[in-house]
Amino acid sequence: MGFTTVLRLGALTLALASTTHAMASEESQLVDSLNSYRSQIQRCAGQALGELPPLASDPRLILPATGMGDLQQALVKASYPMVNVQAIRLSGPRDGAAAMQAVRESFCQVVLDPQFVDVGISREGREWRIVLARPLLSARLGDWQAEGQKLLELLNGARAQARQCGAQRLEASAPLAWNAALASAAEGHSRAMANQNFFEHRDRDGRTPGDRAELAGYQGQQIGENIAAGHDSVRAVIDGWLASPGHCANLMNPAFQELGAAYAADPKSDAGIYWTALFGKP
Q1: How far apart are CA 85 and CA 91, in angstroms?
Q2: pLDDT for residue 84
Q3: How far apart are CA 274 and CA 191, in angstroms?
Q4: Is the pLDDT of residue 30 over 70?
Q5: Residue 91 phi/psi, 5° resolution?
Q6: Are 248 and 241 in contact (CB under 8 A)?
Q7: pLDDT at site 241
Q8: pLDDT confidence of residue 18
Q9: Could you give the C-alpha distances from 270 to 13, 106, 121, 254, 266, in angstroms and in order?
């Protein structure tokens, strides 16, 4: 697969208050703010965009905040095997909160792009560089049924422990059982997202997760769905869901008793690989 490099630059001059010392924690705060922003439905460029898994901090994406240079060459030197990358440069924000405000106002389409799964942030004074990227798929995956079963195993391991999903404390839940009809519906949706290059719960024919489960022959009382994109391992998918309050709550929901899960890949799509976990209550 060839590399596609897109460099997005932005210079924002904000009202400056009194000079403050740079704090290393501001970069971490901005990562947390970006992930909180992605975890909720947002309006961007006139569209309502759904919840996204959190970005993973990758030190290879922390590049100098000042100076242009060749972005692709810098990532090659850092041994980051990218498929796509975008960089946002901000000039003026005094802290992570001000940088996040600038991102919301001018770069929502970049940070809400589902293809990106990794992030690196650097800061020098009031100069910031935010690098978002998607790596090449490097893991050797089994077929969709085998990986779906692995996802079920890790998901049940997560359900076995009480955990905090955002502000909500959830107790441990009983393990889920594999359901072939839900798995078929999950595989169909993952395949549709990969082949048709979209990332949404409602498919291009307007069908909801409940519609797809019913068409696959599942007669359940309740349906839930988690989706993910860009991750080439089951562990990364589960970790992303657990870090997102909405996905975490779905995963821990004690009402669900069955699961079907699958992935599909298409190198021509934006995210490369797409995952669906379909939860059901019979």
Answers
A1: 20
A2: 85
A3: 8
A4: yes
A5: -125, 115
A6: yes
A7: 93
A8: 27
A9: 32, 22, 22, 34, 9
Q: What is the per-residue pLDDT across 81-123, written as a single tens digit (0 to 9) for each?
A: 878 899 999 999 999 999 999 999 999 999 999 889 899 999 9
pLDDT at position 19 over 80: no
pLDDT tens for each residue of 138-178: 668 899 999 999 999 999 999 999 999 988 999 999 999 99
> HSE on the CB side for 82, CA within 13 Å?
29
**Beta strand 42-44 pairing with 258-265:** unpaired
Q: Kind of pairing, strands 163-165 and 258-265?
A: unpaired
d(CA 145, CA 122): 40
Are the C-beta atoms of 264 and 195 separated by less than 8 Å?
A: yes
The reported pTM is 0.72
Q: Which amino acid is at 70?
A: D
Two structure tokens written together for 184: 């078929």
> If you write DSSP's letter for every residue of the chain in order, what string do you get?
---EE------------S-----THHHHHHHHHHHHHHTS-EEETTEEE---PPPEE-GGG---SS----HHHHHHHTT--EEEEEEEEEES--SHHHHHHHHHHH-HHHHT-TT--EEEEEEETTEEEEEEEEEPP-S----HHHHHHHHHHHHHHHHTS-EEETTEEE---PPPEE-HHHHHHHHHHHHHHHHHT---SS-TT---HHHHHHHTT---SEEEEEEEES--SHHHHHHHHHTSHHHHHHHH-TT--EEEEEEEE-TTSSSSEEEEEEEEE-
Task: Look at residues 212, 217, 223, 219 and name the one whose alpha carbon lies nearest to residue 259.
Answer: 223
Structure tokens at 145: 């049924």
Query: Measuring CA to CA, which residue among 220, 216, 185 is closest to residue 203?
Result: 185
